[in-house]
Amino acid sequence: MRLILVRHGETAWNRENRVQGRSDTPLSDAGISQAGRLAESIGNERIVGIVTSPLRRAVETASIINRCANAPLEIDEDLMELDQGMFEGMRFGELSREHAEFLRRWAADPASVVMPGGESLAALQERAWRSVYRITASCGTVLVVSHNFTITAILCKVLDIPLSDFRRIRLDNASKTVVEADAGVFRAIVINDTAHLK
Is pTM, for the whole model, over 0.85? Predict the structure, then answer.
């Protein structure tokens, strides 16, 4: 079983350094272009299915890829991004000025905090892993389109990294990460491949 984990293409909010979370933002023109190049790079893969977060930026990325993959496409709520509650839509500079104490706690131990009005990394990892568990019941290669925190939480589980160390993993927009699963054992083969964007 092989998973290709894709972070959605760029949105205007990515460019503006806004907290995106569950906000349903579309791809920017650059994000649409990134998704097209990503689709071309996956052209030789035999994709048996595509599973995507329901958020628009992920669905748009998945749909562009599926023009090449031509595979059954399924939406999975468990692949949504971290619910960032009251921080949704805020610019990072504004967040730093208005919520400095929270950010200190987030920097010190991100696994121990809950986004005000949102969720924790642990809750995100639990629901994202439910999705992975369902998907790996299939055979073949499945492409999963999701979000930065969601894919990072999955990788922390695969790599046996504590959630408090999630910053060790970097995922760019429209990147590919490949994970293989065999008899319940997961291995990360490639992380944050962006060669197709260069």
Answer: yes
